[in-house]
Amino acid sequence: MKQIFKFMFLQLIIVLIIVGGESKWNVPGAAEETKQIKISWGEYAGAGDGRYVQYDYFIKRIAEETKNRIDIKMYPGEQLVKSAQIYEAVIQGTVDMSAISTAYYAGKLPLLAYQMETGYWDNGDAGVIVSRLRKEIDEIFKKDGVKFLGWGGILPPLCLVGPKTFRTFDDMKGLKFRTPGIGAAVINAWGGTGVAISNPEIYMALQRGVVDGAYATLDAWVTYHMWEVAKTITFNRCGGGPTFAIMNGKKWEGLPEYVKNAFEKVSREMPAWLYFYNRNNVESLEKFLKSKFKMSYKLTPEENKIWMEKQNGYIWKPAVKKYGEPARVLWEKWADIAKECANARETGDLPKFY
Questions:
Q1: Which of 45-49, 58-62, 301-305 has the lowest mean pLDDT?
Q2: When comparing pLDDT for 249 and 110, which is higher?
Q3: Assigned architecture for domain 37-155+241-281
Q4: Could you tell me which of 104, 129, 338 has the C-alpha nearest to residue 216?
């Protein structure tokens, strides 16, 4: 009898272990937290571009926070889609996410094209502005079924390369310059002729004489070795524009809560990290490029003021005229934060990131 009870007791223990094990693995959400989720990132910046460094940092932090359950695959250099079509690709879900520059989407996202008004802020400030206007920016993207992640990469300043240095507007006359999207208006205001050409095609355009010079970021010149096809580089003293980290809305909604929380946490870290990265990076970029081009020149503060005054308002003024009060209110918020950043630096303080 004792043996029978002993046998029955062992059977009971085994059943409890099996049931306990099954209940452990059948807890709602347990399976989804062990399954790796793949996310595609379509990007027009090249792998050697400073933006890629920023995005790569974000991707690695997401992997850390989710214990590698999120696999964000970056496709740089327009591998999946051209720069002018990336936003539509995110809307449609052709790519899951990206960090877009609205220079290519001024017609579709006119109020976010303010990011090109770089004469109003200094290096690193663009990321601060974007993070402080998170709610407003999210509402704009939401209309297209797109989720704004609350941060944006920071482009280094735009500058000119060409056959000579450009110190006055007379130096621009009669010359054609490659520009990013609506940036053609800036070149035209300075006396040249702007031609819209995507980043990967600049090298060939300069080599073949399609354009005389080009207007793009410091990173672009490093990535595409532009000193091989242009003699000079002219640096200005303005800040860089932001890109906007976005995700397809349906993709976002389909993510488990723990993944969304990870994205929220890392996204909140990004503005401060980007601020310091950008401010340190620009000086080293200028030094490197100065050693590569045959000639270089950096506008004096007085010269830079003249150049920026000529371009300032080329986006926000038409936007306010066309869209009225909402456009004016958003621009004033944008400009006020830029002033706050400048005041913080003057007093030796850090800007308010959120």
A1: 45-49
A2: 249
A3: 3-Layer(aba) Sandwich (3.40)
A4: 104
Which DSSP string corresponds to 194-233?
A: EEE--GGGHHHHHHHTS-SEEEEEHHHHHHTTGGGT-SEE
Q: Which residues does 211 contact at the CB level (< 8 Å), separation at least 6? A: 176, 177, 178, 195, 197, 205
Evaluate whether 248 touches 146 at the Cβ level (below 8 Å). yes
User: How far from the centroid of its chain's Cα atoms is residue 152's Cα?
Assistant: 5
**How far is 80 from 94, CA to CA, in rounded Å?**
9
- Residues in Cβ contact with 234 at an 8 Å cutoff, skipping those fewer than 6 apart: 159, 160, 161, 162, 165, 166, 167, 296, 297, 298, 299
Give the right CATH number for 158-239+285-346 from 3.40.50.720, 3.40.190.170, 1.10.3210.10, 3.90.1150.10: 3.40.190.170
pLDDT tens digits, 9-26: 444 443 333 334 433 333
- The answer to whether the CB of 187 falls within 8 A of the CB of 177 is yes
| Residue range(s) occupied by CATH 3.40.190.170 in the chain | 37-155+241-281, 158-239+285-346
- What six digits make up the tokens of 75? 């496709």
**Other Cβ atoms closer than 10 A to 158:** 24
More confident residue, 105 or 77: 105
pLDDT reported for residue 321: 95
Gyration radius from the chain CA atoms: 25
Quote the CA–CA distance of 109 and 117 in Å, as a whole number.
14
Note whether 169 and 190 are within 8 A (CB): yes
